[in-house]
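Weekly sync, protein design subgroup
Attendees: M.S., D.O., the rotation student, P.L. (late)

Item 1: inverse folding check
M.S. brought a backbone from last month's batch and wanted to see whether the design step gives back something sensible before we order anything. D.O. pointed out we never logged the input encoding, so this time it goes straight into the notes. Structure tokens as presented (195 positions):
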């Protein structure tokens, strides 16, 4: 029996996706046993109207543009159709049923690992899925660091944040170097984040 493809799920609002996200995803797919990384774009919570959050399909389009030409990177809108709030456990159950021939793992920053014990059904997630954890400057030791399902990956530490980029664009500061070129062109063309 052939081994299932191993997919790393990288959740986020990606508002906007930037080179930091791409560096992490690319590192995961090239330096671990993950076959692909899927960017899972989190939907806008209808109860939290954030003026700075682009709508779901605009952010999905930005990710599509960012990963164009990367063979092992994909984008998923799977959470758009799930009930909200979308807990990671619900998404994992749904995606595993939808793609039974794939093994799904989670990609997260070390800062998220520190609060992972507060996630809904975190024990069940760890029972059924591996975690691939990349370092953040704010990462500290976690009691889960040595867990057999957790892989600490020495990916580059990226200090770029989407909120920094949004604020810079609003303040008319040139942040093109932090974004894939076709993402910047689309943001510029659509006049995103200027107000």
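Designed sequence read out in the meeting:
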């Amino acid at each position: 029996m052939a081994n299932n493809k191993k997919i790393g799920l990288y959740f986020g609002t990606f508002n906007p996706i930037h080179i930091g996200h791409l560096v992490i995803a690319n590192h995961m797919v090239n330096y671990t046993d993950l076959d692909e990384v899927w960017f899972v774009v989190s939907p806008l919570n209808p109860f939290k109207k954030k003026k700075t959050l682009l709508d779901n399909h605009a952010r999905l389009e930005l990710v599509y543009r960012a990963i164009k030409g990367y063979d092992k990177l994909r984008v998923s809108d799977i959470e758009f159709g799930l009930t909200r709030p979308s807990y990671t456990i619900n998404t994992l159950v749904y995606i595993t049923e939808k793609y039974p021939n794939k093994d799904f793992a989670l990609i997260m920053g070390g800062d998220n690992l520190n609060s992972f014990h507060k996630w809904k059904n975190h024990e069940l997630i760890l029972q059924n899925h591996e975690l691939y954890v990349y370092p953040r400057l704010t990462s500290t030791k976690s009691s889960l660091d040595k867990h057999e399902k957790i892989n600490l990956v020495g990916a580059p530490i990226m200090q770029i944040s989407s909120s920094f980029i949004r604020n810079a664009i609003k303040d008319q500061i040139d942040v093109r170097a932090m974004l894939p070129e076709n993402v910047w062109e689309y943001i510029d063309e659509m006049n995103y984040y200027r107000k």
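Discussion: The first strand starts at residue 5 and ends at 12. DSSP finds seven helices and six strands in the chain.
Action: P.L. to compare against the previous round before Friday.
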